[in-house]
Amino acid sequence: MAKIALRRVTKSFGSKVAVDDLNLEIEDGEFVIVVGPSGCGKTTTLRMIAGFETPNMGTLHIGGTLMNHVPPKDRNLAMVFQNYALFPHMSVERNLSFGLRIRHTSKKDINTQVHEIAEMLSIDGLLDRKPSQLSGGERQRVALGRALLRKPQAFLLDEPLSNLDAALRTQMRFELKRIHTQFPVTTVYVTHDQVEAMTMADRIVLMNKGEIQQVARPETLYADPANVFAAGFIGSPKINLFSAQVDHSGGQSVLHCLATAIPVTTEIADRLRSAHSETVTIGIRPEEIVLRSPMDHNPGQADISGIVEVIEPLGAETHIAVRVGNETLTCRTPPRSGFEVGSAINLCFDVAQATIFDGTSGLRLC
Amino acid sequence: MTYQARSLKGDEVSADQLAASTSDSSAPAVIQKRRSLSRPVLTLLMVIIGVVFLLPLLWLILASFNPGADDTLALPHPFSLTNYHLVIHAGAGAAIMNSLYLAGVSTIIATAVSTMAGFMLARRKIRFKGLILILVLFLTGLPVTLLLIPTYQIFVDLGWLNSKFYTSLVLASMSVPFSIWLLKNFIGQVPGEFEEAAAIEGASEISILFRIVIPLIIPGILVSAILTFINSWGSFLIPLVLDANPSDTPGAVGIYQFMSANGQVQFGQLAAYSVLFSVPVIILYLISSRWLSGGFSFAGGVKG
After folding, report:
1. pLDDT tens profile A316-355
2. Which of A147-156, A194-203, A332-341, B210-219 has the lowest mean pLDDT?
């Protein structure tokens, strides 16, 4: 097990900067998930840790040792690839034992360890088969087994579940979590799937355009996003984001948005005033919007009328898209809420529960 | 009479084309009739081409069993193995063994060198790689005759003349450029993840080459080896110039003993010798055809 530290790491390919001035410390035994859209630099970061790419600038330490120019074979890491990368000419047994054979481990030890790991992953009946004779899930287990068998300093996983179907993906998520509890080895896991990130990570590293947007525990990332990108990326259905004009001219500060004026509390008003923000972006999670009949306005509460545009019943809950002026807001409601498409509806939310970002920089204000 | 109309896309189409496109039944019938006429013509053409290629082979086989064979195509009368007896007694066996040595050694050397060079050129970041590859490509087109005089001079200086081993080195070097290109492309088809997976498991460069890459491109290596073998097997000028030792004479050079200086040719023995000389190559093709038709299989290794 080892701590991984990247300091001021930059990697570019020609004129394209893939990773820009990245600082990240991964603790011993921590399960960190690097998440972000395609091309955000997450895989490049992982490949630099693995040793397949060399940083142009900055330092990479694994277990306290500078690793910038250490070849992959000498880093004592294990990696699970997106496409499994099982050697097609070798049986499952030989795939699993590849690393041990390279290290000249005795045949007896190899045999014991291979059978132990195969039993743990329920692939003990497949040892004589070739990768082409396995299903996607079985291949994934073999790839995991090959990584586990080595007892490495750290595990690197590059979108390991992206080629599996939805049911198998859920099963493997549990499996990976269970394995990490059993072998608490430092793990860096790259994915573009926020569900994987939210369900498995001790900490999530959110990246965009080669830069880290936020590093936080999953619940923190969801509740307290650092900027508009973090708010928009995490959460399904997506957070509702709309712009508002700040108005401090009257007795009470208001936000002009959604064809109405929403009064805000003194605390929020003070923060907006000190940030000198004239335009802000308001983010409100779908579950924080309440659909109801018209009621009195309270300071800090918005009550807005709209038209039901789309209803998506999901069984356990229903998502309702409501058209308000030029914006469409998604609301999460209990099942069988009784609303109909095209009908008028009143929705309200507590501005104190909303996240407010600066309209220009996108950074969180309150 | 034709008139011009405009299609939906705006390009002009003729009335004939319009008629052809609107008529449901007549157009396919015309095409079918044309096809039914062209098929026998094509078949006849192919048969003629086939016969042109097969006739010399047929002459070769028939003449080899005919003690009184000449340059005409005739059935052996009487059918006899005399020609074969004579060429074997005249040292055809030894010549074929010499050819096997030259072709075998040059194939092993050329394939080994080309596999390693191909691996590095396909996978590693090398300075001036593009220039090196262009140079290698240029070398594939160099004629033997251009290199023979300087090579002979080098052999004289190094005292390598009249040696089968050093001659096979030259034969190998003639095949290396083409083999490098061939194997570089085969290795390029192996998904990079295999090598990365092996590297992170602790495998060294040489281990990756021998444990992962080579087993995955065996069909490609065989193609390269067979081409080198055939190239060296039929090589005439290089062994003739570089190895004058009579006991080292390979089959391709030995064939000349049946053509005398005054223009007389022993056709029967020449044919029998040629048949014997072709046998190892035919066997090689038969053995390797199973591998060659197999192609590469990375199934199950990577998804996608």
Report:
1. 999 999 999 889 999 999 887 778 898 888 888 888 889 9
2. A332-341
**Band (B299; pLDDT cuts 50, 70, 90):** low
B193 and A98 in contact by Cβ < 8 A?
no
Residue B53 belongs to what domain range? 4-64
Q: Would you call A89 and B193 a contact, using CB atoms and an 8 Å cutoff? A: no
Sign of CA dihedral A12, A13, A14, A15: negative
CA dist B237 and B231 (Å) reads: 12
d(CA A301, CA A299): 6
Considering only CB atoms, A130 lies closest to which of B215, B300, B304, namely: B300
A132: which residues sit within 8 A by CB, 6+ positions away?
A88, B297, B299, B300, B301
Is the pTM above the cut of 0.90?
no
Q: Are residues B94 and B43 in the same domain?
A: no
Interface mutation target, options B200, B207, B214, chain A, most CBs of A under 10 Å: B200
Mean pLDDT of B278-299: 74
For residue B295, which residues of chain A lie inside 8 Å, CB to CB?
A: none
Q: Is the pLDDT of residue A301 over 60?
A: no
The token duo for A144 is 């995991």
- Range of lowest pLDDT (A53-67, A140-154, A286-300): A286-300
- Interchain contact, A102 vs B216, CB within 8 Å: no
A240-358 under CATH 2.40.50.140, yes or no? yes
Residue B123 is assigned to a structural domain of this protein:
yes
Q: Is residue B120 part of a domain?
A: yes
Q: What is the value of ipTM here, to two decimals?
A: 0.84
Domain CATH code at residue B179: 1.10.3720.10
B40, B120: one domain: no
Return d(Cα A64, Cα A211) in angstroms, integer.
24
Q: Please count the structural domains in chain B.
A: 2
For A4-225, CATH number out of 3.30.70.920, 3.30.1330.40, 3.40.50.150, 3.40.50.300 equals 3.40.50.300
Angle at A164 between CA A158 and CA A168, to 5 degrees: 115
